[in-house]
Amino acid sequence: MPVASVRGAQIQYEILGTGDQWISLTPGGRAGMKGVRPLAERVADAGYRVLIHDRRNCGASDVIIDGDLSEQEIWADDLAELLGQLGASPVIVGGSSAGCRLSLLLTVRHPDAVRGQLLWWVTGGRFAAERLGQNYYGQFIEAANAGGMTAVCESDFFSERIEENAGNRDRLRAMDPQRFIEVMSGWREFFMAGADLPVIGASEQQLRGITVPTCIVPGNDQTHPQHVGETLDGLLPDSELHYLPGIDEPQPEPTTDPAELLARQTKRQSLLAEIFIPFLAKRFPL
Fold first, then answer.
1. Tens digits of residue pLDDT in 124-159
2. How sure is the predictor about 255, in pLDDT bands with cuts at 50, 70 and 90?
3. Does the residue 7 lie in any domain?
4. 263: domain range?
5. Could you give the CA distance from residue 9 to residue 11 in angstroms, rounded to a whole number?
6. 3-class secondary-structure state, position 214
7. Inter-axis angle of helices 156-164 and 139-154, nearest 10
8. For the stretch 199-223, what's the b/e string if a residue is b when 16 or more beta carbons lie within 10 angstroms of its beta carbon?
9. Model-wide pTM > 0.90
């Protein structure tokens, strides 16, 4: 797997396809690049060149808990640097949930690096802010307070990061727990401060300033309310709103079975491909 040195972090990435037009896709949550692979493969098969990567602190890339910016902004700046190294700017950027926030922040912070957006499962509202702030940061602040960096390393999420990248253990163990708590608390504030914004991570003024062609597929749960995606569509000057088939139907029960999760993910991304590929063909023809 290729690795790039990006702003002090070793970032794992992969390029699918050989087309002249670049697309970058990022999954939701803290999932690694495999979380968006089914869609990336479909888009690459349609003739585009697709970049997927493990963000820092995700997948097999380096864990580095530091910085004065929010983690979301750090991810956006990392992607801008990676795109520059690969000669992939300006790119059509896209993602789900956390990947959607990254995409919007990349467009806001590095407008010259983006020529279009593919956004799905847009995040917004106080429930999402509080839930994600706890899931991403609060639980690890609690672990560090209770058992220092040993407890952090033993958490499910960070133990997986160590398993995928052994150097993450030494980086985490070398941290002062109080500094870890300080950084994580600052990163959590990004979500709390965004609870009343149209979408978490960007103000109305910033969103109205995004002029690139954008395709939006809203979500349908408390973290990704349908109306948040619809609000985003109303704020962007050049956007299209599409809905997945069956979005108003009862959703399946949550599952932790890896095979079932993969099957659901692949099915959803196949449906997304049926929306995004025609949009790309219309707005960014090969």
1. 999 999 999 999 999 999 999 999 999 999 999 999
2. low
3. yes
4. 3-124+203-283
5. 6
6. strand
7. 40
8. bbbbeeebbeebebbbbbbbbbeeb
9. yes
Q: 213 CB contacts (<8 Å, ≥6 apart)? A: 116, 117, 238, 239, 240, 283, 284
The conformation of residue 238, written as its DSSP 8-state character, comes to S
DSSP one-letter code for 35: G
Q: Using the predicted structure, report yes or no on whether residue 248 has a pLDDT greater than 60.
A: no
Rounded Cα–Cα distance for residues 105 and 73 (Å): 7
Q: Of residues 78 and 257, which shows the higher confidence score?
A: 78
d(CA 5, CA 85): 9
Contacts 24+ apart (CB under 8 A), 156-160: 157/30, 158/63
> The domain that contains 93 carries what CATH number?
3.40.50.1820
Domain total for the chain? 1
Beta strand spans in 133-265 (E): 214-217, 239-241
